């Protein structure tokens, strides 16, 4: 009997490299082909991981998606990391993240070097990318608003948050608004009836989970303090991107206003290059958070790109690993669900404010700009064309506007 146990352990150790290699290959394929944003990514994941390979059952996958929506951070990346962890442990989660993220990171770093090497700041296609960003975010607000602010209380909360965000523009205003919205939601929806769901099996001990959560909160608290005591530009960059990655609820588009507050006032990136990079991010597959690689490269070259990418995704990794063992308990709390309802409404408000400033005020400066933005919005919303086709159309439209 003991010999059988030893053989099982040896078989598991031999199969681990095979699992990791398979994870890398499949996640890299997804990283090269997954266009369309977080919701589309979840569909691609389901097709590759669940339907084709049956690495998880349907209910467990649905639970993992729900957890990723509950946590701050990039939902699709957290689902991919979670599947990797369940498949091959912590290293599996890291490998799944690398495969899914690296292709778009490389593409956006190259785009940053292109912008730096050639003076194309006034090129028509760059202006077209800014208009693309307007239509993309407007489309995201409409979809999120229908889902996250379906009643007058949540819609009102979203508009209040948007108004305060525009009128009170400080580094900490958005963080405080998210916390306040969580408290409001916890009070308004304190009697929310929780829904029963099957438990998800997690191969991570609670001790490891607590360690990850401790690291998450420790970095969130001490990085800003350490930044004040150090003159390191890379440490400051790490702090800015780590905080942005820690406070994003509701999907990748919401990182835009957080990063705008971190990058433009510090002078790391000007507003024009910031919006051009955001538009270009829509044209590449993989997670929207790889926008950080572009910004890091613009600010500090290759080292900045690496630091920014690691920093913005690190909270997602720590939170998904830290929360998985406790998820079955947390989701049964009406207070937790109420707080999430309030936070989601605030997210819509913050994104609505970003649609006006910096997007609209920078990109829509003539009637032709508004006309192009409207066309792109219709292409996304009603024709449901892939984002990369909208990006190309926006670039061509920007060039044509330049000849008017």
From TrEMBL:
Q: How does it sit in the membrane?
A: Multi-pass membrane protein
Any one GO CC term of the record: plasma membrane
> Could you name the domain of life of the organism this protein comes from?
Bacteria
Q: A single Gene Ontology molecular function, please?
A: chromate transmembrane transporter activity
Subcellular location field: Cell membrane
Give UniProt keywords alphabetically. Cell membrane, Membrane, Transmembrane, Transmembrane helix
**Signal peptide range in chain numbering:** none
Asked whether the keyword Membrane is assigned, the reply is: yes
Transmembrane regions listed in the UniProt entry = 20-45, 94-118, 124-145, 157-188, 208-225, 276-295, 302-324, 336-356, 363-382
Q: Which Pfam families match?
A: Chromate_transp
**Main localization (coarse):** membrane
Q: Which family is this sequence assigned to?
A: Belongs to the chromate ion transporter (CHR) (TC 2.A.51) family.
Which NCBIfam families does the annotation name? Answer: 2A51
Q: What is this protein called?
A: Chromate transporter
* Native source organism of the sequence: Cohnella abietis
Gene coding for it: chrA
């Amino acid at each position: 009997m003991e010999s059988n146990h030893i053989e099982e352990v040896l078989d598991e150790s031999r199969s681990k490299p095979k699992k990791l290699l398979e994870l890398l290959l499949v996640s890299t394929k997804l990283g090269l082909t997954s266009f369309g944003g977080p919701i589309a990514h979840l569909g691609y994941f389901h097709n590759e991981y669940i339907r084709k390979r049956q690495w998880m059952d349907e209910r467990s996958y649905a639970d993992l998606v729900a957890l990723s929506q509950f946590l701050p951070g990039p939902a699709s990346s957290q689902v991919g990391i979670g599947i990797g962890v369940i498949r091959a442990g912590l290293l599996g989660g890291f490998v799944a993240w690398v495969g899914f993220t690296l292709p778009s990171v490389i593409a956006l770093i190259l785009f940053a070097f292109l912008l730096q090497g050639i003076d194309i700041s006034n090129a028509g296609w760059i202006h077209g990318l800014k208009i693309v960003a307007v239509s993309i975010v407007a489309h995201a607000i409409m979809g999120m608003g229908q889902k996250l602010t379906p009643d007058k209380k949540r819609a009102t909360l979203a508009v209040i948050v948007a108004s305060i965000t525009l009128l009170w523009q400080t580094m900490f205003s958005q963080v405080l608004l998210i916390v306040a919205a969580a408290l409001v939601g916890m009070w308004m929806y304190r009697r929310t009836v929780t829904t029963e769901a099957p438990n998800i099996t997690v191969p991570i001990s609670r001790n490891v989970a607590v360690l990850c959560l401790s690291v998450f909160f420790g970095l969130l608290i001490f990085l800003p303090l350490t930044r004040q005591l150090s003159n390191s530009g890379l440490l400051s960059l790490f702090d800015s991107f780590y905080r942005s990655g820690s406070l994003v609820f509701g999907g990748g588009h919401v990182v835009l206003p957080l990063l705008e507050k971190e990058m433009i006032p510090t002078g790391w990136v000007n507003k024009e290059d910031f919006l051009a990079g955001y538009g270009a991010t829509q044209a590449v597959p993989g997670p929207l958070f790889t926008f950080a690689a572009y910004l890091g490269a613009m600010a500090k070259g290759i080292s900045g790109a690496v630091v920014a990418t690691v920093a913005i995704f690190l909270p997602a990794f720590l939170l998904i690993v830290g929360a998985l063992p406790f998820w079955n308990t947390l989701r049964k709390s009406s207070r937790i669900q109420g707080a999430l309802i309030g936070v989601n409404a605030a997210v819509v408000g913050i994104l609505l404010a970003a649609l006006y400033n910096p997007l609209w005020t920078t990109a829509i400066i003539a009637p032709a700009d508004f006309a192009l933005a409207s066309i792109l919005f219709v292409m996304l919303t009603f024709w449901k064309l892939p984002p990369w086709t909208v990006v190309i159309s926006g670039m061509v439209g920007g060039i044509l506007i330049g000849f008017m």
